[in-house]
Design a protein that fits this description.
By secondary structure, the protein is α/β, with parallel strands linked by helices. The protein has helices at residues 26-38, 75-83, 99-104, 108-116, 129-136, 148-160, 162-179; strands spanning 14-20, 42-43, 46-53, 67-71, 87-91, 120-123, 140-143. Helix content is 42%, strand content 19%. Strands 1, 2, 3, 4, 5, 6 and 7 form a seven-stranded mixed sheet that branches.
């Protein structure tokens, strides 16, 4: 089911951020939404849309949101739908009470993301095991803050730096082939 790595964003006028699975890390999710609110749901000339796949969605906002909630999909369909997205969001818990879980667990959604061939935007603390794994292989853009303005800057960096975008996609695809097939 693995897709070829994407070397550029699909559209000139929109940016799709893909999310698969349950959003247990609500503080992180809310900080992403705050960052998008701060950016007025636009990066450059692109309208930002979140494509959310999962059996449950808890969406709270006092402002308009651009969210496509597509419900549950099989693994094969999830890979295809994430390959049609531009950036794949992987939040991980910052709360220090869950430090051991954050260090030692590995999210299934990350394998789906790597198979989709699009750059992973990993959002979690610096000690998170999956973030360390992505950083070591240069296979994700790592964001270690909950501050909306800094999250927005990281997203802008990934959108504006075409070489970085392509490199992260390629490295993620190679990582999938090396460890997860």
């Amino acid at each position: 089911w693995a897709m070829a790595p994407g070397t550029q964003i699909h559209y000139a006028d929109k940016l799709i951020i893909g999310v698969v699975g349950q959003l247990y890390s609500t503080e992180e999710w809310n900080s992403l939404i705050a960052a998008l609110d701060f950016l007025n749901w636009k990066i450059g000339d692109r309208k930002v849309i979140i494509r959310l796949l999962g059996s449950y969605a808890n969406l709270n906002s006092y402002r308009p949101m651009n969210v496509e909630y597509l419900g549950y999909h099989s693994q094969e369909n999830a890979v295809k739908l994430m390959a049609q997205a531009d950036i794949l969001y992987c939040p991980y818990i910052f709360n220090p009470e869950f430090k051991k879980v954050t260090e030692l667990s590995f999210p299934g959604k990350l394998i789906t993301y790597l198979a989709a061939g699009r750059p992973v935007f990993f959002h979690g603390p610096s000690y998170a095991g999956p973030g360390i794994f992505l950083r070591q292989h240069k296979a994700g853009l790592i964001c270690t803050t909950l501050e909306p303005d800094k999250i927005g800057r990281k997203l802008k960096e990934l959108v504006k730096d075409k070489k970085l975008y392509a490199r992260i996609s390629r490295n993620g695809s190679n990582l999938f082939k090396e460890y997860f097939t």
